[in-house]
Amino acid sequence: MTTRRRNLLLLAAVIACAALGAVLLAPSLRERRAIDAVPDGAFLVATIDLVKMRQSPLAHELGALREVSDVTELCGFDPLARAKTIAIAVPEKPDGVFGLAITHDLKEDELAKCAERVMSARSAVPSVTLRGSWTIVQQEGILSEATRPKIAYRDGAPLLVARGDYLAAMQHALDGPKAPSEHDALRKIAEARAGENAVLVATALLPKTVRDKIKDELATEADTSESKKNTMGAILAVSEVALSVASRGDQVDVFAELRCETSGACSTLSEFLDRKRRELAQQPAARLIGLAGILDGVHLELRGDALDATFSAPATELVRVVRSGFSAPR
After folding, report:
1. DSSP 8-state class, residue 64
2. Residue 141: what pLDDT?
3. What is the pLDDT averaged over residues 156-171?
4. Is 282 exposed, middle or buried (0-12, 13-18, 19+ CB in 10 A)?
5. Measured between alpha carbons, how far is 256 from 243 in angstroms, rounded to an integer?
6. Do 79 and 44 contact (CB within 8 A), yes or no?
C-alpha cells in the first residue's frame, strides 16, 4: 500500500469517526423536552410529569375532577393518556397569550386527524399548512390568525399550541440555541426539594414594573392603614417564586420558595402568612373539610431574603379540600 493511499484511508477513517461522533452526541429530536420549547422572557413556567402523575394516588383522586368531553370520541383515543409531559409558558404580556408544549407518543397522522376533527366539531374550518419541517393546523380566517390558538407538530418534537406570534417563538426556542435563564436556577431549587417524585414544578419571575405600579396605587389610597400598606409592600416585594409538588406513596409534598427584594420584606411576609394560617385553621369550616389539618402542617422557614413554605398531606385530603370549594372569610 502506497503512502498516499494509506493517508487517504486514514483521512476517511477520521472523517467517519467524526461523523459518527456528531450523530451520537447531537441531541435527537425525539429527546427534546417540552420545556425546551419555552421562549425567553416568560414570566411563568410550569411543567407537569403526566407519567408520574398517572402512577400516583393523585391520578385516581383527580380523575373525578376531570371534565368529561367529546375529544376522546372524536379522536378515537384519549390524547391526555398519550401525553408524557406538559410545559406551560406565559410571557410577560397582559393580553392572555400563553403556550403549551406536550411530549407524547402519537404519530403525525394521529395528531392531524385528532386536531382537524376537534376543530371541525367546534364549528371551525381547519387549515393545514406546511412550514419547513412543521405542520401547522389553525382555523381559517384573517381574525383567527391572532385570536385563535394554532397547533404545530412534527415527527419527534413536542406538540406546540399557542396563538399569535408566540407559536413561532416556541418553535424558535425549540430549534435554536438555549441560553440559561433565571427560571433554570429556580427550577433546580424546586426539583432538588421534590427529588425523583416531582409531579409539578413551576417558577415565576414577577415583573418589577407591575409590582411598582401597584405599590404606587396603594400609596395614594388615604383609607389604607399603615399596617396594611406594610403588608402589601412585603407581598409586592416578592420577585421570584419556585414551587414543586411531589407524590410520595399516598402523600403529596408541596414546597414553595419566595424570594424577596429585602430580608425585612420576607420577615414581614412570614409573620403575615403565619398569622393568617393560624386564623384560618381555627375556622369551623376549615376543621369540617380537613383544611385545618393541612394548615397546621405548614412549616415556614425564613432564610434572609428567602421564605420557604412546606407541607405534606394525603392526596385524598387535598382533593377533598379542592372539591369543597372552601374559601376563607374576609
Report:
1. T
2. 60
3. 90
4. exposed
5. 4
6. no
Distance of alpha carbon 125 from alpha carbon 118, whole angstroms: 10
Angle at which helices 226-236 and 208-219 pack, to 10 degrees?
170
In one-letter notation, the amino acid at residue 108 is E
**Pairwise CA distance, residues 53 & 262, whole Å:** 36
Residue 7 in this model has a pLDDT that exceeds 50: no
Instruction: Report the distance separating Cα 253 and Cα 318, nearest Å.
Output: 11
Maximum C-alpha span of the chain: 96
- HSE-CB for 71 with a 13 A CA cutoff: 14
How many CB atoms within 10 Å of residue 308? Answer: 17
DSSP state of 29: G
Q: Residue 159 contacts by C-beta under 8 Å, 6 or more apart in sequence?
A: 100, 101, 102, 103, 104, 106, 111, 151, 152, 153
- Name the pairing type of β-strands 238-248 and 251-260: antiparallel
Query: Which tens digit of pLDDT belongs to each residue from 234-257?
Result: 999 999 999 999 998 889 999 999
Tracing cell 409592600 back to the chain, one arrives at 233
The C-alpha cell 409538588 sits at 245
The grid cell for 305 is: 431574603
Residue 83 CB partners (closer than 8 Å, separation 6+)? 50, 102, 103, 104
- Which residues make Cβ contacts (< 8 Å) with residue 68, sequence separation at least 6? none
Question: Which set of grid coordinates corresponds to residue 279?
Answer: 386564623
Q: Is 83 helix (H, G, I), strand (E, B) or coil?
A: strand
Amino acid, single-letter form, for residue 300: L
pLDDT tens-digit readout, 277-322 = 999 999 998 888 888 989 999 999 999 999 999 999 998 888 888 7
C-alpha distances in Å from residue 296, one per residue of 258, 275, 287, 292: 20, 12, 11, 6
Domain boundaries, the chain: 29-175, 182-324
| Contact in structure between 55 and 6 (CB atoms under 8 Å) | no
Given the C-alpha cell 424577596, which residue does it identify?
Answer: 260
- Assess contact for 37 and 85: CB atoms under 8 A: no
